[in-house]
TrEMBL record:
Protein name: RrF2 family transcriptional regulator
Organism, scientific name: Kaistella montana
PANTHER family documented for this protein: HTH-TYPE TRANSCRIPTIONAL REGULATOR YWGB-RELATED, WINGED HELIX-TURN-HELIX TRANSCRIPTIONAL REGULATOR, RRF2 FAMILY
SUPFAM superfamilies with a match to the protein in the record: Winged helix' DNA-binding domain (SSF46785)
Pfam short name (any one): Rrf2
InterPro entries: Tscrpt_reg_Rrf2 (IPR000944), WH-like_DNA-bd_sf (IPR036388), WH_DNA-bd_sf (IPR036390)
Source organism superkingdom: Bacteria
Length: 143
């Protein structure tokens, strides 16, 4: 559904949130292991997310990644839009360039409700919302 880049970005931000909830920071190697991601790939993703303000980083021996209050309150929909664009929320299920209420593809009306539900679910869930479920082992970020 999402690009690999977007999947890793979502997993990394949620993982960083869980691992730094007590005010610490976490390094790239630990993030890569924690979400089962290639280290180089997640480093590039986090560099991009840091530049765009979705995650914060500090250099030095006690450095690493963490999320500030603003980042913790970002919706998953914002991250998806940043990484993959908004086509998943607005595009045609069949990839047609012109698909609308007045010129629908064969699955337009059914897919529209799926699209809207997906957007609503991602918009209503913030990056910081998952720590308790992860800590209780009710949800997982790694195989």
């Amino acid at each position: 559904m999402f690009s690999k880049t977007c999947e890793y970005a979502l997993r990394a931000l949620i993982y960083i949130t869980q691992q730094t909830k007590d005010g610490g920071k976490i390094g790239i190697k630990d993030i890569a292991v924690g979400i089962d991601s290639p280290e180089y790939f997640i480093a590039k993703i986090l560099q991009d997310l840091s530049r765009k303000g979705f995650v914060q980083s500090a250099k030095g021996p006690t450095g690493g990644f963490y999320l500030d209050e603003t980042s913790l309150n970002r919706s998953l929909a914002e991250i998806v839009k940043e990484m993959d664009g908004d086509k998943i929320f607005t595009g045609c299920a069949l990839g047609l360039k012109e698909c609308s209420e007045t010129h629908p593809c064969p699955v337009h009306h059914e897919f529209k409700s799926i699209r809207n539900n997906l957007y609503r679910m991602l918009q209503n869930n913030k990056v910081g919302d998952f720590v308790d479920r992860l800590d209780a082992h009710e949800a997982f970020l790694k195989k």
